[in-house]
Amino acid sequence: MVSGSEISEFRVHVPDGDLADLRARLDRTRWPDQLPNEEWRGGAPVARVRELAERWRTGFDWRELEARLGELPQFTTVVEGQTIHFLWVRSGVPGALPLLATHGWPGSFLEFADLAGPLSGHDEAFDLVVPSIPGFGFSPLSGPGWNGERVARAWTVLMARLGYERYGVHGGDLGAGISRRVARLAPRSVVGVHVNYLPTPPSGAAEEALSPQDDARLAGYAKWAAEFGAYEHLQRTRPQSLSYALTDSPTALLAWIIERFHDWTDPRRRDRIGDDVLLADIALYWLTGTAGSAAQFYRENALAGPVPGRGVVPTGVSCFPYEIVLPVRALAERSENIVWWREHAEGGHFPALEVPGTLGTDLRDFFRPLRS
């Protein structure tokens, strides 16, 4: 039974002054020259950032987004002094399986907003719980020490507080690591773990009997780190210095995030993530002032170390071809109890936005035998 004293209803509303300040800052942007390099290889091109900044300043309607979000039930609760914001969409379908879905960076709970209806309204329904990680969006950071392990502990408290004794977990990016930790902390409650991101980097030791495809996947880790990994290194080592730009300049924040979406999305599916979808995510970071604390999560996570031990909970993996790095099943099975694995022909790092129907099907297929 949910205690009313522990759970509070939440409704999104940003003061008019914050929206006016945002428009004024965008209007005063001091634009750099376009440096002489190939588009996107040296960062987000000026023409694209200008286009999106102008849309943000004159066309994007935050109030319309607030109205749409008002149709989704949202709540807050406090765990260990930290406010946790979350979506909680109950299906009303008998036998619905509670599903705890965790976002990553530079995503947010908004990734699951459009999936809430299909997941909760299907015959194989889920009660969907989507928390905002501490330091992201409407979960403003209360203090240091909120790494993946501590977040996972908070998630187990949240699910118990909502009255769920057994549930599934799902995540991508940072949310995948958090979901795996939840399963390790509460193996008797978690019926299954589904992820769409599961790094299996080379260990340095010789790996035998891998297929040419798997060898290519392992080789991709070094290539990715050399060409695209600067953001991760900076957020893991110097998030405070970065936070000044991301908190003071909406244009800097815009460029920092759209580069990730460009690099990590299936180029054949980029049209699925429209400009207003991008701007909604970026505006959430800006208007809540959490871009710096979200970057800090990388440092906290690095200090905490990798997900420990070998998981015992049944685990399913969806592999999308334009993911940041792709997993090798033989290596994944060393740390996870892999019982389900599916390779896809399209999609990237943001499947809930790029190929939502595919992700929804995968979730139903994986959890089907685990429901009872």
From TrEMBL:
<protein>
    <submittedName>
        <fullName>Microsomal epoxide hydrolase</fullName>
    </submittedName>
</protein>
<feature type="active site" description="Proton donor">
    <location>
        <position position="298"/>
    </location>
</feature>
<keyword id="KW-0378">Hydrolase</keyword>
<dbReference type="Pfam" id="PF06441">
    <property type="entry name" value="EHN"/>
</dbReference>
<comment type="similarity">
    <text>Belongs to the peptidase S33 family.</text>
</comment>
<feature type="active site" description="Proton acceptor">
    <location>
        <position position="349"/>
    </location>
</feature>
<dbReference type="GO" id="GO:0004301">
    <property type="term" value="F:epoxide hydrolase activity"/>
</dbReference>
<keyword id="KW-0058">Aromatic hydrocarbons catabolism</keyword>
<dbReference type="InterPro" id="IPR010497">
    <property type="entry name" value="Epoxide_hydro_N"/>
</dbReference>
<dbReference type="InterPro" id="IPR029058">
    <property type="entry name" value="AB_hydrolase_fold"/>
</dbReference>
<feature type="domain" description="Epoxide hydrolase N-terminal">
    <location>
        <begin position="7"/>
        <end position="112"/>
    </location>
</feature>
<dbReference type="InterPro" id="IPR016292">
    <property type="entry name" value="Epoxide_hydrolase"/>
</dbReference>
<dbReference type="InterPro" id="IPR000639">
    <property type="entry name" value="Epox_hydrolase-like"/>
</dbReference>
<feature type="active site" description="Nucleophile">
    <location>
        <position position="173"/>
    </location>
</feature>
<dbReference type="GO" id="GO:0097176">
    <property type="term" value="P:epoxide metabolic process"/>
</dbReference>
